[in-house]
Amino acid sequence: MASAWFGPCPHCNISLSYLQGVTGSTMTPQCPGCHQVVTVPRATLLMADHSRPAPLLRPPDPR
Ligand SMILES: [Zn+2]
User: Which of 4, 9, 22, 55 can bridge 31 by disulfide, Cβ–Cβ 3.0-4.6 Å?
Assistant: First the structure.
């Protein structure tokens, strides 16, 4: 079951979206900012969170 949470990169502290259980998730995801591997308890896909603190302007992609 996919889930998502948000937090900083432990290396460079940029805001990241941690997407668990989605296509492309891995046990050794790399931060999109500093490209270091982030240790995660479950397979995770990391995405830079550009949506904060600005409000969400687009509806989520229904794919
Ligand atoms: Zn980083």
Answer: 9
Neighbours of ion ligand 1 (CB under 5 A): 9, 11-12, 31, 33-34
Q: Are strands 44-48 and 3-8 parallel, antiparallel or unpaired?
A: unpaired
Q: How far is ligand 1, taken at its centre, from the CA of residue 16, in Å?
A: 9
Token couple for 13: 């502290």
Give distance in angstroms: CA of 55 to centre of ligand 1.
23
CA separation (Å) from 55 to 18, 28, 49, 63?
A: 19, 30, 12, 21
Query: What pLDDT, in 10s, does the model give residues 31-49?
Result: 999 999 999 999 999 999 8
